[in-house]
Design a protein that fits this description.
Blueprint: H1 13-16, E1 31-37, E2 43-49, H2 51-55, E3 59-64, E4 98-99, E5 105-111, H3 114-122, E6 125-130, H4 137-141, E7 155-163, H5 166-171, E8 175-186, E9 195-201, E10 204-209, H6 214-225, E11 232-235, H7 251-263, E12 267-270, H8 273-279, E13 281-293, E14 299-311, H9 320-328, E15 337-346, E16 352-353, H10 360-378, H11 382-389, E17 398-399, E18 405-406, H12 411-421, H13 424-436, E19 440-449, E20 457-464, E21 470-474, H14 483-495, E22 502-506, H15 523-550, E23 558-560, E24 563-566, E25 569-572, H16 573-582, E26 589-595, E27 602-611, E28 617-627, H17 634-654, E29 682-688, H18 706-723, E30 729-730, H19 734-737
Parallel strand pairs: 1-12, 8-30, 10-11, 13-16, 14-15, 21-22, 28-29
Antiparallel strand pairs: 1-5, 2-4, 2-6, 3-5, 7-15, 8-13, 9-10, 9-12, 13-14, 17-18, 19-27, 20-21, 20-26, 23-24, 24-25, 27-28
The structure holds pterin cytosine dinucleotide (MCN) and molybdenum atom.
Pterin cytosine dinucleotide binds at residues 190, 241-244, 356, 479-483, 486, 518-525, 628-633, 636-637, 640, 643, 700-705.
Amino acid sequence: MYTGKPIKRLYDDKFVNGKSTYVDDIQISAYYAGFVRSPYAHALIKSIDVSDALKVKGIVAVFTAKDLEVKEGIGIWTTYEDPKLWKFVKRKPLADKKVRYVGEPVAIVIGTDKYSVRDAIERVNVDYERLPAVVKMEEALEDKVIIHEELKTNVAFDQTYSAGNVENAFKNADKVIPVEITNNRLIPSPMEPRGIIARYEGGFLTVWYSTQVPHTARSEFSRIFGIPSSKIRVIMPDIGGAFGSKVNILPEDVSVIASAIKLGRPVRWTATRSEEMLASEARHNTFKGEIAVSREGRLLGIRGDLLVDLGAYLTYTAPLQPAIIPSMIPGPYKVRDIHIRSRAVYTNTPPITMYRGASRPEATFIIERIMSIIADELKLDDVKVREVNLIRADEMPYTNPFGLKYYSGDYLGLLREGLNALKYYQLKGWAEEERKKGRKIGVGMAFYLEISGFGPWEFGEVRISETGDILVITGGTPHGQGTETAIAQVVADTLQIDINKVKVVWGDTEIVASSMGTYGSRTASAAASAALVAAKEVLEKMKRAAAKLLKVDVEEVSYSNGEFSAGGRKVSWDEVAAFSYASNEPGIYAQVTLPGDVTFPYGVHVAVVEVDDYGIIKVMDYKAYDDIGVVINPALAEGQIHGGATQAVGQAILEEAIINDDGQLVVTYADYFIPTAVEAPKFESHFVEKPHPSAYPTGAKGVGEAALIVGPAAIVRAIEDATGKRFNKTPVRPEDVI
Ligand code: MCN
Ligand code: MO
């Protein structure tokens, strides 16, 4: 069995040795593109003069909005989102008449090398008339300055998530506590920035694209350009991380494709780091309201307003946030009386995309802050408050107030087990002793229940070659996680075969029949399960071929570890494969589209921090105890906890995309502090498997986002323990602590 073992990643040599091929490494004769970007957050474009830029040696073209025709603008992700609930404009590749955020692309410059392109960008003269900018969400709500005139308001989404009887809950409360909780704006920052190469030749469009969703991109390019999808190929080469942000399709990407079509020559663009910082900003929302609690610390009701910043345009994935955050605010707790008005507003800031956890970190931070606030206000212990409120195992399956069905879980059991295993109580005692000696040490815990897996389906194909090798074509699109290795493990186990005979491929619309992709921690559940089911079908086909070869009925054939046997005779896996091709048997392959469902991983995480006299916070330890169902590869899963927890350190204390009142991003990569190995804590991670019926045959629940979902809440709680102060926002900065 490979499942459950820390098998080394199968295809990592090239990454370790610098031999991987990202979009920017692809050798193809193509023009380079670059963008003229708005220096203002809100302004009218009076005129654009490109004549100077065209004089630069090597410049081929400069296109503005009027030059780049698309059939339709950029839309939203209709797999998960209902356009009817939204006020939005389908965004065109380049700004026309008006710019709405600093960095918005106004013109695309195309040339034979990137250096001339850089020079020419400086020589495009745009005459702007500045307009007042609205940068803060609360101001945008007032609609004094309207960002999209045709919408007549900045409020894009306004829905109320209401369940139970919240009036009653507040009437019966022993205590009502006001709360205000903010997640500030972040930048996902994958190591590889955006990249795209578009080639349009002979009526066929080929796009090499740093994406998580090649098939969605193909459909969207087809819709946007009016080119049949049969004539579009999207290829995902090696991807240097994405963290959810590469589900989005950028106007820059669309501009590059439009230019390639117009010029009849390939065009390429790789974002600079500062462009990447504009392309993918994420989070930023505030919950303001009040909670009703009983004397024993039971959370009886939550009411209030959730305000979600969209930035200047609606991206593919932004609509998820104001819907998922309120639905997951109840989390693992019994609270049923909730009334949350959820609004999303446009502001003159870079558009918000998705970042690891996408909405569940926000929901978790809000509900875990609420639990800690209850503990503080009622002078109860953090654990006690959770114990009082957690849904019990005998209440499973449990339908949350907004209709999400938690099919199973033993939250209380895991909480108790986990805190013991992680030595939470000992650490608490130790921290208290250290504080008496003058050190500011603190220990914090947080619990989470997240939703992952996200159906609706995933694709998997398994093919046996005439040499007996196994090709797995997955709809998953791993881009750093190593999930391809887990898929190979699952297939090798199903076929009882050496994992070295298995090759997993993905991410090319002409190789993979269809796919949803990798996001929402769904690949070990959805994609690996589709591959598992396909492998089972293939094994049945191999048995039938073996029966022919052995000249027996298929019922007589038994199979074990690469050998088929019947009546004392044996044939090998490879012999059967060769036979099936040579004897005109139907091809040994299976394609499966597996319908899927959501999964609900949960766990408890503990952080230990030390704060120095300057308010500098060091996260010393990060400990995790999670139920992620069947663990396919503990090394990979643990890696996810380490990576996610490191990003949680960033979100909790270091990273913030600060935008000033003029709408300027005032941080650069130099002072947008992404944690490195130096800031990373010492890790400890445990996985437990509690029985859980799951839509997915691998039995796996997701782990790819868990530590970033719960980590900020645990770390902030530890800082509170260390300092005795209270923080209801991320990040907590030295100036907040001192
Ligand atoms: N795994 C396992 N057993 C389980 C669950 C998962 O062994 N029960 C392993 C898998 O084999 C895989 C990893 O853990 O190697 C994560 O699997 P899963 O939870 O299914 O998540 P996905 O493969 O779908 O990855 C997506 C997830 C998301 S949504 C974001 S955001 C994120 C993350 O992965 N972005 C990442 N981790 C990232 N890691 C890297 N290096 N780069 C990114 O961009
Ligand atoms: Mo994600």
